[in-house]
Amino acid sequence: MRAEVGLLTRNVVFRGDPETSVDNQYGATIFIHSAGDDSVVARLGYIECMHVGQAFQLGRYAIHFHMIGALHQSYVKGLSVHQGNNRAFTIHGNSHLRIIDNVAFDVLGHTLFIEDAAETKNYIAGNLIMMTKRSMSLLNTDQTPACFWITNPDNQFINNRAAGSDRYGFWFDLQNNPTGPSADPNYCPINDKLGEFRGNHAHSMGRYGLRIFHGQVPRKYPCKPIVYDYNKPEDPYH
To answer: In what helix (H) or strand (E) does residue 24 lie, and over which residues does it extend?
Structure first.
């Protein structure tokens, strides 16, 4: 049998306090926010991030892209994130972000986290996530964590590896409507199309490598029921 191998060390290190971070679950964070599509460019490459993330703190994730919109020029590439107290990579209210060839190890909670279910067209490829651990200080679902927690199907997941999680590898926890600041009753990601999911591997899980829950039935009008008379004159989609 062959094991997953990920290099955690880098020449540039971003870290929390080594004396207090572990005991207090309180580490360093990188928070990127600017209102409007492509209003900020963040290119994080080949950095070692350790003792990161803050448990019991909403939004204090290790690497957090927050409510920016489109991020065509930004990426997270070749990072290592380990000994994390609150996720590794969070995509919140963003699209077209690239997360490529990163390694995450020994992290509490969903390790790659798509937050509101309005996030689409992100490219997530070649990442290795190992030893995702349950957390009692984050969301209820973090008590059954996933290496990749996916709330919107319209993203690309290519050649990623999930190895060792307290519960799941890839969890499509698709939402009826977006939540949080992205809340929209007129958008139904649970029935949206799947972007791309290929070449991914999951093993050594506490439960499932791939879980699709609450379900996905993609269709032309995601917020309409499966059985519907689209020929009705009053139908606004007709």
So the answer is: helix 21-24
